[in-house]
Design a protein that fits this description.
Layout (H helix, E strand, L loop, with lengths): L1 H39 L4 H40 L10 H33 L1
Length: 128
Amino acid sequence: MAGETVNAAKAATETAEKVGIFKKMFDKGASFARTMHNRHAGQTLTDAAKSIGANMLAEGVEEVTEELLYDVTKSTFNILSEFSGGTKVSAWDNILERYGQSFFGGMLGGGIFEATNAYHIARPKLEG
């Protein structure tokens, strides 16, 4: 029992380190997206493409971060279940598939959303 608790604590520490890495990635992606959007929103087609690309990247990283936090939450629940003798939930299963789907789904959604915004920003210029 004590060995399992120590192993669970080590796993929680490693998970916390992983979360820190993904948080840094998310913050950099979000900052890049905001900078590109503010700099290029509605100016030219090339600028709109840069803004769309930046938003795609930021949304993809955000979705992966959410998936990671979901796994961390399940791991934390499992650690607490060790002490109470409760049931465990599966965490870290099919990680490559789930994280990949989250990233590409976020990229697709972020691209569509930003393309819609770019169109609405540029629409007065196109009509006028």
